[in-house]
Amino acid sequence: MKRTICLLLILIFILRIFSITSFSSPVNVREYLNGKFPAIFSFYLASLEDLDTYETEFIDLLEKLPTNEQRTYAREVYKNGFSIELLDELKQWQKTEEAPSWQKTEEAPSLKVAYPSRSGQRIGGSPLFIFGTTDASPAVKVTVNDEEVKKFDFRTGNFLTLVEVPKEEEFPIVVVASRGGERTLIERTVIYPRLWEELPRNPLTIHSTHIQPKQDQVLKEGDKLKVIIQGSPEAEAVFRIGDSSNEVSMEEVNDLPLPLEGQGIYMGSYTVQAEDVPFLRETSPQIITVTLRREDKEVSRELPGKVRFASGLPPRIVEVTGNRTRIYQVKENSFILHSSTLGGDGLPTQMVGYYILPGTRLEVIGVAGNYLRVNLGVKNYLIYQGDVKEMGNVINKPFTGLSKIGLNETKNEVEIRFNTRECIPFLIEDEPQQLRLILYGVKKSENIIQEGEAPSVQKIEIESPVQEESDAAAITIGMNQPLAGFDYRWEGTELVISVRKLPQISEDNPLRGRIIVIDPGHGGESSGAIGPGDIHEKDVVLEIGKFLQSMLKDKGAEVIMTRTKDINVDLYERIDSALEHNADLFISIHANAHAEGADAINYHGHMTLYNYAYNQKLAEIILDNLVERIGLPRTRVWKRSDLVVLRRPQVPSVLVEAAFMMHPDDNWYLLQPKYQREFAGVIMNGIIDYFLSL
Fold this sequence. Notes:
The chain is α+β, with helices and mostly antiparallel strands. It has 6 domains: 2-103, no CATH class; 111-191, Immunoglobulin-like (Sandwich); 206-311, Immunoglobulin-like; 316-390, Roll (SH3 type barrels), CATH 2.30.30; 399-500, Immunoglobulin-like (Sandwich); 515-693, 3-Layer(aba) Sandwich (Aminopeptidase). Strands 11, 16, 19, 20, 21, 22, 23, 24, 25 and 26 form a 10-stranded mixed beta sheet that branches. The chain has a 7-stranded antiparallel beta sheet with strand order 10-12-15-14-13-17-18, with no helix packed on it.
């Protein structure tokens, strides 16, 4: 019996030695590092490929060292790679406790300032956030301009603070990390340029760039030419068009949009008259000249944007050719003076959150810079000239009756067809369980024929005219269940709306058979946000994505990754892969960053983003899970129409901002493999809850 016990003990001892020093095959570095070190050191060591015997021995020895020495060796691996000599040096260090030669530079704390990254850096807002990393130790103190930093995590050495920066000065930033009597100091300077400054009253001046329009415009009878300038305050301002002696008065504006402030902003407008242009042609470009006067002083400036007037010409029709054509609604109740706008006319725009179909015909009412002006109902929109082709003087005949609706339902989708006889423009308003189409150039017929049936359709209602828009019809398509995606296309002159039906979900395993695309954001040349220890967003979200991929597969889901390594991936390719695989979900994973001037101390935590209304529920469920399980603050569920990966309506899509890279509290969770795994698990649970809620 004793002999048997001895043999077992010897065998256990041999197996233990074997498990530490040798493997029959390389060991996965992420799994082997899990939980051994603070996450920032694990990232340095994760630059290794699959581990061999020497590397695992190195890591096991490294685990026994104090934190500061772990950081030193881990950084050396990250910088120069692993070598047998490094292992020997570590063994020697443990025997003699003598620091290696490349560590003996100083005993003061290490210090790296990630932002601002250089002296002379121009910033766009105040307060300025300053973040970086030092030794992970409660004995270390970090100050910025003699004030202790507001956030310091001694577990990682990461710090963050805010400093108010005055405008127009080269402002010094002095960061000091100290331990006992030793200290390390880094100095930087930043410049916060004044985006806007009131001009002096004298001498009488017109600003050279704060003027609108900046690009040429083509206007027709009834259109307004808006002229905006910055000049010396308390003056008389007028503008003239071409050789005309008529002066148009301008008023000094007091109610200014940000960041404008102070006095000296002048605005005037002129409504184009029929007599401004000979009938059936377009004038040559007319120069706009602005003049300021005060007492016996006068100054004038020609604006870079010229204007042409057109009257009596046949309708100018264009046809959309681009597959990803966007239109932009013009916001006519505001203006921008200090920078360019899409149309070069000073009017801000808002992107419509979906693409305009190829083949759609639009009537051009004017030109604004490189964009064409079109009317949809009572609102003005811009469309890029390169996305359309000219159709000559073809008359765009409005179809005066919407008379037939076709319905068809299959296992996976419902099709609704509208015969419009022309590829007319339309807008889409979506809600979680219905679509509302506003078609321009269409009126409701007295007798509408409905062909086919679709049990999943609750209602189809047609409203014509639509409030004040006499040439439009609104079609509301209500469904008996929440949307799971929708599509729209032209088949000839028939508008086809496809509404995706909800998948069949198993309550026992909601993920079985589901196709899910996981998109780790950024990659390759796009680093994304950068954390205090030179850790990039692209690396963090890739790790979370890989964990999520593994978890979803274990539950029976089919998972498509937009990337599995550090490579460039086109934004359109990311979401298009979801369409190609007919995915049930598209989840883009990111780690957040702050805009300059934001309260980076108090505003941090989890965020989710969506575009279409039917995706809001998925975004809210995932955010609820993150807040409950990870425990960082809730920021918001944010509707965004400008993000490429959220612009396809065919697939339920959300973007998850797991946490903020620069914030030490968030950073602690983002960098540790065990919490990366937990982020993935929480997102998976959110997906499960979403499917079960359908």
